[in-house]
Task: inverse folding
């Protein structure tokens, strides 16, 4: 890959004023259109540029309308700022219309408080010793978007003729050519991209005969919780489920861990099923 494909470079913003930035919605980071996780990543990065706090604690996104491959404007407003946290609103706009509005809580690197963790997942395999996506699916042509990261599936996409199973995908991911970013906000944005993208794909194991699906499912909203910094983790273990889809809505939930099984972040979303163009 070329240097321009690096996630940190691909999400860089240009400052216009104290609380305003601009960035292109790039076609080479697209799925059906500008990817929701990519747009959210730009918003999270804008919040990081605007706050003095070093890392995000949570982010809630509302996707209002699709975008196009052209420059977008980002405006950040600080709604509340204290010694231990700041709440920022980020609006991403094109042509005067808001595509995404989001709320981001920013916090210090560490402060005194209670400490316990019962979430560690024991027994994860070493991702370096797992087969690659190309080795598991040698006859499948990979969408350029998914070439942005190495993928070592555990519970992967269903094969042709496979019986329906639980709507869940798991595996390890490592961004390429650089696995991590120095900024905690940019590094955490890797999580947005993975959970947003694979949330929709998690329904395929329950509907293996519908590939490609006759539906698309744009996000209505997404809520993320960043539980601990992720900048130490080259490999990210993702588990994402689509436990229920009914009446034109689809819910997803996911979690991101490091290779040692420590929980880094969680996310949940609501999507709306729409007929695929041409169906």
Result:
């Amino acid at each position: 890959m070329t240097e321009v494909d690096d996630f940190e470079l691909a999400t860089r913003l240009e400052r216009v004023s104290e609380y305003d930035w601009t960035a292109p919605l790039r076609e080479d980071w697209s799925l059906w259109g500008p990817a929701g996780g990519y747009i959210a990543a730009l918003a999270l990065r804008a919040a990081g540029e605007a706050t003095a706090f070093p890392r995000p604690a949570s982010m809630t996104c509302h996707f209002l309308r699709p975008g196009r491959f052209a420059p977008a404007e980002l405006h950040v407003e600080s709604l509340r700022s204290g010694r231990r946290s700041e709440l920022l609103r980020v609006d991403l706009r094109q042509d005067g219309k808001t595509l995404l509005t989001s709320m981001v809580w920013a916090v210090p690197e560490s402060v005194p408080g209670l400490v316990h963790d019962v979430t560690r997942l024991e027994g994860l395999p070493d991702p370096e010793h797992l087969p690659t996506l190309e080795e598991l699916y040698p006859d499948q042509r990979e969408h350029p978007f998914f070439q942005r990261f190495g993928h070592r599936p555990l519970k992967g996409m269903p094969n042709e003729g496979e019986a329906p199973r639980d709507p869940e995908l798991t595996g390890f991911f490592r961004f390429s050519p650089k696995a991590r970013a120095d900024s905690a906000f940019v590094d955490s944005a890797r999580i947005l991209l993975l959970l947003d993208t694979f949330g929709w794909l998690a329904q395929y194991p329950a509907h293996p005969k519908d590939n490609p699906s006759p539906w698309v499912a744009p996000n209505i909203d997404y809520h993320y919780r960043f539980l601990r910094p992720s900048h130490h983790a080259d490999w990210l273990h993702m588990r994402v489920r689509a436990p229920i889809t009914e009446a034109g809505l689809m819910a997803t939930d996911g979690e991101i861990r490091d290779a040692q099984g420590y929980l880094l972040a969680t996310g949940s979303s609501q999507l709306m099923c729409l007929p695929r163009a041409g169906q």
